[in-house]
């Protein structure tokens, strides 16, 4: 999450979305969270302002009714991994880089819809 080449968003065809999200969720459940000295998978984000930014994206998604597969949890700069499903283009998380352990899933109904979303992104294809 804290590098520019990290996955920003997952676009998935509606027909296979449930199966994919369940598989991702199973992997997320196995991630360890804590300080880097303990060799954890998820460690604190770089700054409090970064954590606040991520929290803003998450709260916007919650207000707009994305499905949370985990409860949002934060202690200081440490944010637990979060899988967000049913993310829509009107949610900030669909367009803004979190640089943290948040994975938004956007369900699409056609390849054309996916192409449209990619073309509308400021990030291009990564």
Automatic annotation (TrEMBL):
Gene3D superfamilies assigned to the protein according to its UniProt record, in alphabetical order: Aldehyde Dehydrogenase, Chain A, domain 2
Top-level EC class as recorded in UniProt: oxidoreductase
Reactions catalysed, as given in the entry: D-glyceraldehyde 3-phosphate + NADP(+) + H2O = (2R)-3-phosphoglycerate + NADPH + 2 H(+)
Family affiliation: Belongs to the aldehyde dehydrogenase family.
Protein origin, superkingdom: Eukaryota
GO molecular function ontology, one term from the record: glyceraldehyde-3-phosphate dehydrogenase (NADP+) (non-phosphorylating) activity
Aldehyde dehydrogenase domain sequence ranges: 1-126
Keywords: Oxidoreductase
The protein's Enzyme Commission number: 1.2.1.9
Protein name as catalogued: NADP-dependent glyceraldehyde-3-phosphate dehydrogenase
InterPro entries reported for this sequence: Ald_DH/histidinol_DH, Ald_DH_C, Aldehyde_DH_dom, ALDH-related_metabolic_enz
Organism name: Nymphaea colorata
């Amino acid at each position: 999450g804290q590098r520019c080449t990290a996955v920003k968003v997952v676009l998935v065809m509606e027909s296979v979305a449930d199966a994919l999200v369940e598989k991702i969720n199973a992997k997320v459940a196995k991630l360890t969270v804590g300080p880097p000295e303990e060799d954890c998978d998820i460690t604190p984000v770089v700054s409090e302002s970064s954590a606040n930014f991520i929290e803003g994206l998450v709260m916007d998604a919650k207000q707009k009714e994305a499905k949370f597969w985990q409860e949002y949890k934060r202690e200081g700069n440490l944010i637990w991994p979060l899988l967000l499903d049913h993310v829509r283009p009107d949610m900030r998380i669909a367009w803004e880089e979190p640089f943290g352990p948040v994975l938004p899933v956007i369900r699409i109904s056609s390849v054309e819809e996916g192409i449209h979303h990619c073309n509308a992104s400021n990030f291009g294809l990564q």
